[in-house]
Amino acid sequence: PAAAMTGVLTKSLLLGVVTLALLHTGWAERCEFVEITDEWTYNYAATFSAPAPADFSGLVVDLYFNRPVDSIDFYQGTAEKVDDHHFILRDDSLSGTAGLIVECKFQAHFPEAQAVVTAATINGVPICEGGWTTVPPLQDPCDPTGMKPYDYAQVLCMGILFYEAERSGHLPADQRITWRYDSALDDGSDVGHDLTGGYYDAGDHVKFGFPMAYSASLIGWGLIDFADGYEAAGQVEYGRAAVKWATDYFLKAYTAHWEFYGQVGRGDLDHSYWGRPENMTMERPSMKIDEAAPGSELAGETAAALAIASIVFKEADPAYSSKILGVASELYEFADAKRQNYHISIPDAAAYYQSFSGYYDELLWAALWLYRATDDATYLDRARGHYAEIPTSPNNRLVQFSWDDKRAGAFSLGTLLDPEFTEYATGIQGFFDWVKHEAPYTPAGLVYLDTWGPNRHAANVAFLMFWNAKQGLDVEENRSWGQGQINYILGDTGRSFVVGYGVNPPKRPHHRSSSCPSMPGSCHDGWAEKQEGPNPQTLYGALVGGPSEDDTYTDDRIDYIHNEVACDYNAAFVGALAALVEIN
């Protein structure tokens, strides 16, 4: 007997749309288990009929189409639109044994050319042989160069490549991470704006604007001041693309004068979901700062990122450079005129990216970068004023350079742009002296500035050491210190902490999408715990959090303290690698 399933379209879940482009998958012939029984303009009726691959209690049939489909009518269960190419038919009341013929009658409605089913699964098991050509495992597109003692140029390439895995929105034709697809194409629809694009933050899928802006700032800084390293490694265009993916999003997020959307997605909802961003269906609220609810850290850091990017693109794209510089200036004025901690206006950020250092460092940082981008000396005067506002209490001691605390970066930049203001030189020299002589270290030599992500903190300071050495500060000593930290990360202890590179690299980073098999394979809540082997997708170039203070490390997918990856982890790291390419 056949099991007939019918029903109506009950949900249209437009969050997390995925376009399965020809770049990523091979659309083969139509699924042999689907027969079109009647057709008319932009519509057809069809029957899916196939043997159940296993005993079942409740039936879920996933249908994948080669072209966009608007909707499906299905008259006895429910139909769910995951995206234009993927629909799910459900009937929880059905049960049966392996081999039972499952028959589903449906009508498909498409906007233009006829869409046919090219792949299908029954309860997660692919049943159309040849109907879906999955992407072969991605091979590292970053060729080795032979550089010693570590291939800094190859790792620089891989470190920039990582950002393609973190992309949200509609992916470009030249996307190199082929197991990622379009996602979150409805971001901003809740507030009537297009907030697609930008980067997912880490192993999750929230778009946190504050650390995203920091990441764009640091990638851009490396492109400016270690340009020869980027050029020698052949990564200038890829580095620019990484910056522009963020700055294009920031332009969208600046929706009106002094109105900026600083977060899309809610942390608790997002973190309760383990799966691909392409399959997300949870609510993704959009959160903003404006004149009534300002946020100085967020506006200031985004202003810095855009000012830096304006320098990056000044010759390559003068019109774009001028456009983003104008927005940078407006956001800085907003940050300075309407002072308030941004997590007060975007409360959801407080549990994840609250700025404990306050906003004076972002104001200083942004003013200095705006001076460098414009040569307007009033920014130098305002920077000195911001410096004077930074609290000097013992509780505010400078102990790291990070997405939160920009002081060490600003002091460094200040020595170049305003050398007469000697407080900048005193500040960075004091920080370096503390790092070298008082900060804690692991037995094998990694500076240990935080339990959470110590590798990124070491890389952040290494970047500053290389930068200051290039300006003539303790050249050999600072270069040696920086190289020692990067070499620790790349393998000096007998293992690499960069996914896909070197000896015994991490294979199970805390990263949802790379932990999932190639589509249409199943990936769902509980997957991370049940999948014992390496992540199916190699997340090339991702820097994991790092070891415990005694140098021990376990490659554990669930350990988000030591094994998560994030956009900010790689941001200064790639700049430090570009510096080492120059030195070598």
Overview features:
six-stranded mixed beta sheet; single chain; 37% helix; five-stranded mixed beta sheet; globular; 17 strands; alpha+beta; 584 residues; disordered N terminus
Can you walk through the features of this model?
This protein is α+β, with helices and mostly antiparallel strands. 37% of the residues lie in helices and 15% in strands. It contains 17 helices and 17 strands. The chain has helices at residues 152-165, 209-225, 227-233, 236-253, 267-271, 296-312, 318-337, 342-345, 350-353, 360-374, 378-389, 407-417, 423-437, 454-470, 475-492, 527-530, 567-583, and strands at residues 3-5, 8-12, 26-27, 34-40, 43-51, 56-65, 71-73, 78-83, 86-96, 101-109, 117-122, 125-126, 132-133, 207-208, 254-256, 259-264, 286-289. The strands form four sheets. It has a six-stranded mixed beta sheet with strand order 2-8-9-6-11-12, with no helix packed on it. Strands 1, 4, 5, 7 and 10 form a five-stranded mixed beta sheet that branches. The N and C termini lie far apart (72 Å). Mean pLDDT is 91; it is low at 1-28 and 130-134. Residues 152-577 form the Glycoside hydrolase family domain. One of its GO terms (molecular function) is cellulase activity.
